């Protein structure tokens, strides 16, 4: 809910897993032209070694958006596209795992994160999720 955000301030988010904390990633940002941007879909990778968390890192990239919406290394939408009563600015974090579990088996979900798709596939997936979030129903 953007109503609870501090006025006139950038907003960041961190992710914690296994006593490891990621760096801060922006979820709201004001650029040098005083335009506000909202980051609605971010991706985090949890790196494990034999089941123990070694690192928590953001998977940055503008794989699913136009160049003019690539802000600070991630896709963003202008704040004025956030309308009350819609889900246009709902935040989603995609979590994937990389490394090995406690039995030494390789974790596979990191290969399915958005940055691993070709840009046209990533863009169509991003648009599909965005359109379905506006209806509060995702059909697979």
What integer value in Å does the Rg equal?
A: 16 Å
Specify the overall morphology: elongated
What is the number of beta strands?
Answer: 11
Strand order in the sheet with the most strands: 1-4-5-10
Average pLDDT taken over every residue:
80
Protein architecture, described:
- The chain is mainly β and 140 residues long.
- 11% of the residues lie in helices and 33% in strands.
- The chain has a 4-stranded antiparallel beta sheet with strand order 1-4-5-10, with no helix packed on it.
- A hairpin with a 5-residue loop joins strand 4 (25-30) and strand 5.
- The longest helix is centred in the last third of the chain and has 15 residues, at 119-133.
Nutshell version of this structure?
This protein has one helix at residues 119-133; strands at 11-13, 16-17, 20-21, 25-30, 36-38, 41-49, 52-58, 70-71, 74-75, 77-78, 92-99.
Characteristic terms for this protein:
single chain, 140 residues, mainly beta, 4-stranded antiparallel beta sheet, 3-stranded mixed beta sheet
What is the topology?
Blueprint: E1 11-13, E2 16-17, E3 20-21, E4 25-30, E5 36-38, E6 41-49, E7 52-58, E8 70-71, E9 74-75, E10 77-78, E11 92-99, H1 119-133
Parallel strand pairs: 6-11
Antiparallel strand pairs: 1-4, 2-3, 4-5, 5-10, 6-7, 8-9
